[in-house]
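hey m, so remember when u said the tokens were messed up on ur end? i reran from scratch. heres the input so u can diff it against urs
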Amino acid sequence: MLDVTLAGCGGTIPLKSRWLTSCMMRYNGKCLLIDCGEGTQIAMKEASLPFKPLGIICLTHYHADHISGLPGLLLSMGGEGRTDPVIIIGPGNVQRYISSLLIIAPELPFEVICVPINEKVETFAFDGFNITAFHVNHTMTCYGYTIEIPRAGKFDPERARQNGVPLRVWNKLQKNPSVEYEGTTYTQDMVMGPPRRGIKVTYCTDTRPVPIISAQASGCDLFICEGMYGDEDKAGRARESRHMTFSEAASLAAAAPIKPRRMWLTHYSPSMPDPEAYIGEAKAIFPDAICGRDGMSETIRFDNE
């Protein structure tokens, strides 16, 4: 199962009751964070999210409301005893931006490993998370992320026998990619059926509507998408700043080849203190859309789990 929490839902500047954008996902004791706006560590505390297990941070882009919380968060992670490396994924010269931020957090007890995104679509795998970064359309280079938790097929004893896999390694092969026994290496595909449907979450913010978002959100369990403006009268402002309205975000969900199961809106303009007042704009297009809020959380389970 995958736990997903919106720690913050704000764009540009925080409000009294709304922290800046960040989203945490937890799987099998490991944590992944998307974006880290100012005050993210406070938002995490309020949502009872842990610091120490956080090993992967995915940055959509380098505007301050998405990265200015990093130095404080990293210091707090070190203060809670983390010593394992932390991976930070981001567009282009991520090392330059992180090095600049770490000037005020120079003595961390763990290594920070920067992983650049250089292609329009790029995939990574860390700590059990399969991560796809995809290029979107903002005022600076920006990426959305699809996070997937793969699920192996069911154990197939007949397949194991046909492949000559010794009974003694059947159990180990269900839990490990490969096992060596008496000089022979046996692989997991020799005892397992075809992969089953896993868990999929797509997250995007700070962008105009582009087709790749619908393609990435296809068939996902949860689609988290920016809705900077609820009022359609601000559609022009959305175009100028390369953001989206609620109806534009909902249209992306509706256009997905396989409809997402659920949709959360996030990254609200500070000019919109009450997003719920506009949710009808989204639901008219995609009925399974709801307004995200700080601390909103959901546990997504594998089908038939």
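this time it looks ok to me. The chain has two domains: 2-152+195-300, 153-194. if urs says something different then somethings off w ur setup not the seq
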